[in-house]
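Q: For a teaching handout, I want to show students what a protein-ligand complex looks like in token form. Below are the inputs, and the small molecule is zinc ion. Please produce the holo structure.
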Amino acid sequence: MIISLAEIMQIPNESRQMEIPVEAERIHVAGMDHKVISKEPLKLTVTNLGNRRVALQGATKIVLAIPCSRCLDEVDVPFEIEIDDEIDFRQKEAGPDEIPDERVYIDGTNLDVERLIYDEILLDFPLQTLCREDCKGICKVCGVNLNRETCSCDQTVLDPRMAAFQDIFDQFKEV
Ligand SMILES: [Zn+2]
Ligand SMILES: [Zn+2]
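A: Here is the structure, written as tokens, with zinc ion included.
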């Protein structure tokens, strides 16, 4: 949803609270679409600080389905999003020689709420997601989920880098 800040910016000391529904059904991160399992409306307070500056304070909670890094089972991952930002529109309107404001969720005096939330999720996105601490992953040979099934595949296939270490150890043994 796009929220116009133009009116608030014209009223000195104006502060408004709003609840903005989150529209996204899926969030695209790292080449994958992640299903939105649940979402709360964004509670946002917009305050006119004067001198063409606006403060944004808000909070929402979004739960995404993210595949486990080891077994690929989907895990519900909650994102507690807290927004505490200040936008300086003098900077936004900077000339070509000045440093531009890199915030992409502001266009003119419009605030793109979906983009704002997306940026926050991107910042908080975990490097690794595990369904449980001791997830056994999937068998590299037959592909079964080792948390649910066992298989009789030979798991001793060494990583080529590990094999190199093994050679060094063998050399020491010979001495
Ligand atoms: Zn797992
Ligand atoms: Zn197997």
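A: Two things your students might notice: The helical segments are 6-10, 89-92, 113-124, 160-174. The chain has a mean pLDDT of 87.
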